[in-house]
Design a protein that fits this description.
about 375 residues; alpha/beta; Rossmann fold; 2 domains; seven-stranded mixed sheet; 13 helices; about 40% helix; globular; amino-acid biosynthesis; EC 5.3.1.23; IF-M1Pi; IF-2B-related
Length: about 375
Amino acid sequence: MKIGNVPYRSVWVDQDDGWSVHIFDQTRLPWALDVLRLIERDQVAQAIRTMQVRGAPLIGAVAAYGLALALRVDASDAAMEHDAALLAETRPTAINLRWAIDRMLARLRPLPAEARVAAAYDEAGRICDEDAAQNEAIGRHGLSLIQEIAARRGEGATVNILTHCNAGWIATVDWGTALAPIYMAHDSGLKVHVWVDETRPRNQGAALTAWELGSHGVPHTVVVDNAGGHLMQHGLVDLVIVGTDRVTRGGDVANKIGTYLKALAAHDNGVPFWVALPSTTIDWRVTDGLVEIPIEERAGAEVTSVTGQTADGRIETVQVTPPGSGAANPAFDVTPARLVTGLITERGLCAASQAGLAELFPDHAEA
């Protein structure tokens, strides 16, 4: 995608700078567009843990490059397995992270140590290219949903879409998942408007999604997390599209905390609720999302404080709760498949069910 008419991906390698890996520091957006230069494994792990880099597909891609950086130090079997395990443990819920590390190891284990660094960079690059292509395909398939609503509403009508958290290009290598269909609809001339949930406690919607949409010229309005149901009750939402960090083989969806409540409201008001994802986000080993998907519990300080820009341009973090009040901070919730209208994947649209996924992915369904 583009920032100020300059095309970017969310992760890239500088071969002239020691094969260093570069990412945007997402904790600094939207106030500053800072680029982080990563040259060692621990920097990559820290960037993932602290959410300087976030979004399930992007985490996997960056972790893959993290393993390549680690191999530059020690490419032995023991070191590689240790480094891979460390990177895989940085975030527990997003399955793309484990998938990317497993794919890297499958490529690297058969090779002699001296061949591993070059192969690791090559494989990480392939993961990035495939993610960008998958997300572009998700955009094309999801576009059909917006086109159908626009046709039904009539010429000149605006399609109102609600999203939650950030599932745009900054959460992937390029294009995004939930936002890809929106970008394509806007670029094709359809009138779209996006209701952007703020997404407490880290405000990825208010900070990242709003920044992305604004940079691309997509009309949008930021609303508080609890406004979605009200908007649906009054006919102001035509479609909900969200991303996901893990989908079970039966169609249960783990996504940013608060997604479940949006799905309930959508179900009650007859609003289509679609989930956009690359197939790398499907965990074919898991059947019951509520029982089997680990939910990351993050620091309470994310709830008790908020970061923003002051009137004089300073970035400040302030406490918003009384001293001594505790805070719980589950980062994700699970939306049961019965509340999901369908899934948008790189292979097309399908029902959020084992049968629906098996129809699109027969090569995985029997695994």
